[in-house]
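I am writing to request your help with a piece of structural work I have in hand. Thank you for your consideration; the sequence and its tokens are set out here:
=====
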Amino acid sequence: MNKKVIDEIFLLRSIACLSIVFLHAFARSFLEENGIVNSINMLLTFGTPTFVFISEFILARSYPDKLPANFWGKRMKYVLLPYLLFGTFYAGSKGLELTLSSDIGFASAFLQYWWKHLLLGDFHGYFILIILQFYILHYYFHSYLKKWNPKIVLPISFLISAVYLGFFNFVPAVQTPVSQYVWDKFYWIPFVGWLFYFTLAYYCGRYYEAFMKLLKDHSKAVVIAPIVIAGMSVFLFNHGIFAKISSKQIDILFFATSMIFLIYYIGMKARRISTFFVVISQYSFGIYLFHPLFMAVIYIALSILSVSLHPLVETVIYSVISVGLSIIATYIVNKVPYGYYFSGKIGMGRKDESREKTTAPLPTVPQSATK
């Protein structure tokens, strides 16, 4: 098909990316419990569900009827390989840190992290495992989804995700190491908890014109809903109903969805998406993968300098410098032969600076995997 650039995706992807960066920056800067900061952090967790939404939205919009012959080849090279290589890289860096701070040998420390990273998604790149599961779901079920009634599929998928997340939100873990690990981290990985975002993204992408009309016709609700839901989520968090800062909470199903719709609506109303957001979108995959590394470097530098800064100043430093260095690193790695297998390719930007939506292929995360 003749793929089209959707300008709103630039805005949606870039804000999702920046929300994750700010979330991690706040966590490093505000080491003490702070009610306001914790509430902000909780609301910033919509970023990962938004990334997941974008991935399926682009697939459904790009390939409404038939998938390309090289569907899996592109995704193995530009999605799975960066996951494996970055997972190995971070296992090595964590293994080295553990070796330097204990009497554990590097090989043992590295293997301890490596198998968890690659098999269990036990590092910040876990969302890639979720997206890979969505590729599988799309591959085997898109022919059925296009026949099924979205008015039935969406409520059912929401109920499945809500029940799944509710179980891990409210049912305590059995006191064994395995169950503790599942309750703490691993329940994030199976697609069940993200199924609603998958079906929502599929139908929004497949029935794109109807999706845009829906946002326009209900613009007041689109603008007000995130404010109301955010207030409810903050209330529930501060009263201990949801004790963790996590995107894997039932209330975030509502909040992330409302934020996706709001940001998309803002993008629709904007005459032109700022070049800043386009650039962040292009480098979003690299930023996501690289920024924890550079935040660790910044932390070491601030520790060596022994400077005393206000946490808000530190947050800005962590955010701005880590994003800037991640963009530079992604650009440099992409200049190395086959370097994009490590960081993913730099995404496609606008070919025409005017508000024209018919000049370039649709971007996804990473954008190189759409073809």
